[in-house]
Amino acid sequence: MSVTELKAKTLDWLDERTGWRMVSDLMDHKVVPLHAGTAWYYFGGITLFLIGVQLFTGILLLLYYRPTVAEAFDSVRFLMTRVEFGWLIRSIHSWSANLLILAAFIHMFSVVFTHAYRRPRELTWLSGIALLGLMLGFGFSGYLLPWNQISYFATKVGTDMAGTMPVAGPTLARFLRGGEDVGGATLTRFFDFHVIILPLITFGLVGLHLLLVQKHGMSTPSGIPPSKVAQMKFFPNFFLRELMVWYGVLAVLGTLAAIFPWELGEKADPFASAPAGIRPEWYFLAQFYTLKLIPSHVWIIEGELLGLFGFGLLAAGWVLLPFWGANRGKVATGAGVFLICYLATFTILGYVK
C-alpha cells in the first residue's frame, strides 16, 4: 500500500468516526461580506480571544488561590511577590477582563448600527446579550476574590443595591452573600460562581452563539442586497487577518499589564470605615452615578427603587430590540446612540464627581 493510499484510508477512517470533513467543508464555504462596516466583524473574534485569555490565566491563578477569608488575600500577595511572573499573570487576567467587557460592548453596538439583529438572527442577538450579562457577572464575582478593602466594600454596596429590589430583593441579597452580610460565605459563593457556575453556562452559550452565527452567516447592513456585496473567504483570508488583530490585542494587553500592573491594595477589614470615594468598576459606574443623582424619594416612591425599576425597563427594551426595532432601523440606531452617550457621560461623571 502506497503512502497516498494509507493517508486516504486514515482520513476516511477518521471522517467516519468524527465527521471532520464536514467541518472542513464548512470552513471552505464560509465567507465574510466586504463593505464599509467589515472591520466591526473583528470585535466578535476579539471577544472570543479574550475569553480564551481569561480561561488560560484563570487556570494559572487557581493553582495558588485559596478561597477563604483567612487565606485569600495572602495567597494573592504570595502569587504577586513570590511566584515568578505571578504579578504579570494576575495583571493580564485583570486587564483582559476589562478589555473583554469593552470589546463585548463594542461588538454589541456594532450589531445595532449594522442592524444585524434582524430576522432570522433574533436568537443570535439574545444569546449575545446573555453572554454580555455573563461577562458582567464574571466582573462582579471576580472583583471580590482578592479580598481587599476596595473589593470588599464595593461588593457590600453592590449587594445592598440588589437588596433594595421589591419583593425579591432581601432574598436575592442573602443568596448573593450567603448570609446577612458580606463575609466568608460570600467569598466562597462568589468563587463558585466565578470558576464553576458562570464558566459552564458561558461555554454552552458561546457554543450556541457560534452555531447560530455559522448557520445564518454574517449579516450585511440594511439597504445593501447581499447579492451585491463582495465576499472574502473566511479561511484562510479573513482568519489570518483576525489572527493579526489578536496579536495586536495581545500586545496591548501585555503592555498594559507590564506598565500598569494591577495593584492588590490592603486586606479587607469589615470593621474598618469604607475607603473614601468608593465606587464600582467602570462598567457599573454609569448606573451607580445615576442612582446617586436620584433624590431619596420621588413623590411616595423610594428613589433607589425607582432607579432600579427604570434600569429594568431599559434592559428589557434593549433585550427585545429585534422584535420592536426590526422595521424601525432609524429608531434603533437612535436608541443605540443615546445609550452610548448616556453610558459614556455618566461613567466619566462618576469618575470625576
Protein model, in words:
- By secondary structure, the protein is mainly alpha-helical.
- The chain has two domains: 3-278, Cytochrome Bc1 Complex, Chain C, CATH 1.20.810; 284-353, no CATH class.
- The protein contains 14 helices and four strands.
- It has helices at residues 3-18, 20-29, 42-62, 72-81, 86-113, 122-144, 149-163, 169-177, 184-216, 234-259, 282-293, 303-319, 321-324, 329-352; strands spanning 31-34, 230-233, 297-298, 301-302.
- The strands form two sheets. A two-stranded antiparallel ribbon has the order 1-2. Strands 3-4 form a two-stranded antiparallel ribbon.
- A hairpin with a 2-residue loop joins strand 3 and strand 4.
- The radius of gyration is 23 Å and the shape is globular.
- The termini are far apart.
